[in-house]
Specification:
By secondary structure, the chain is mainly alpha-helical.
């Protein structure tokens, strides 16, 4: 079916939905289940035709059908599909490098997300996940969830730390990463969050090298000292399991910073840049460290 034919079919199905909404005695109108299925089939067809904007409209129609029969979870699922399709439509604009990228698709996604949230209780894990997605398109939105779990809190803090890094607020980033460290160690569940602990170990170390905080101000004055001498063997931190080669390079980095040995610092940077364990933001921090000491 061509795109014009799909659009005609979409309009026909919308008219069926309007009839259902107008008819007082539902058995005299079109079948809601049939119309719901038609919207779903059309959405799939529009997706296959690379028309996510129309797929989003079909999912919205599907959500209205689910609302008519009182299926709140079905309505929420359809609204989430609509929101994600609107986001795909926005991404499509960016890929084709449109001259004037419209914000209407993100606005459509925002409406769908907020409508889905209104159908869920405050302490819903789905609600917390929706807020995450919503903040990806509008980071400044003041929405929170009462749902709390260690992994959700860790995710939120890491995202917040990444925002601080992009804003070059390195103190705030360090504080948020240290909060994750505290949460995990206080719960004594380091084994469950090994990758997280390894990741924030490296980020916190790079931030301390960059910030050059005096011992009296540092969050943990022993943290940097554990990397202040070059030794062979296991990781100097009991709460993470970094590869020995990476630990050696990090120790070399700290010592080079402390002695202000720029040549060694550049050499360590070149080796660290090829380490697969370092994230993009850590690579950026590493460059900032070298830049700071090279002045």
């Amino acid at each position: 079916m061509t795109t014009p034919e799909l659009i005609h079919q979409y309009k026909t199905t919308c008219n069926k939905l309007k009839k259902i909404q107008r008819v007082l005695i539902k058995r005299f109108g079109p079948s809601i289940s049939d119309v719901t299925e038609e919207f779903g089939t059309l959405a799939n067809s529009f997706n296959e035709a690379f028309q996510p904007d129309y797929a989003a409209l079909c999912y919205i129609g599907q959500s209205k059908c689910e609302k008519l029969i009182g299926n709140e979870m079905g309505e929420v699922e359809a609204l989430l599909r609509a929101a994600r399709s609107f986001r795909s439509a926005h991404a499509k604009q960016e890929r084709v490098l449109a001259e004037n990228i419209s914000s209407e698709y993100h606005e459509g996604a925002f409406r769908c997300y907020t409508q889905a949230l209104s159908r869920l209780p405050d302490k819903s894990v789905i609600g917390a996940a929706i807020i995450r997605e919503l903040k990806e398109i509008n980071p400044s939105v003041e929405l929170t969830s009462d749902f709390s779990s260690p992994c959700h809190r860790i995710w939120d803090l890491e995202q917040s730390a990444e925002d601080s890094l992009r804003a070059r607020d390195y103190v705030a980033a360090f504080e948020k990463l240290s909060e994750i460290y505290d949460d995990v160690t206080e719960r004594k569940c380091e084994a469950l969050y090994r990758e997280v602990m390894d990741r924030i170990e490296v980020s916190r170390l790079l931030l301390l090298c960059l910030l050059q905080l005096p011992p009296s101000v540092r969050y943990d004055h022993k943290f940097l000292e554990r990397y202040s001498s070059i030794t062979d063997g296991a990781s100097p931190s009991e709460h993470c399991q970094l590869p020995e080669e990476l630990v050696f390079l990090l120790q070399s980095l700290v010592v080079s910073c402390q002695t202000k040995d720029i040549e060694s610092l550049v050499s360590v940077r070149d080796e660290l840049c090829h380490r697969p364990e370092l994230t993009a933001s850590q690579q950026t921090l590493l460059k900032e460290v070298v830049s700071k000491y090279s002045k």
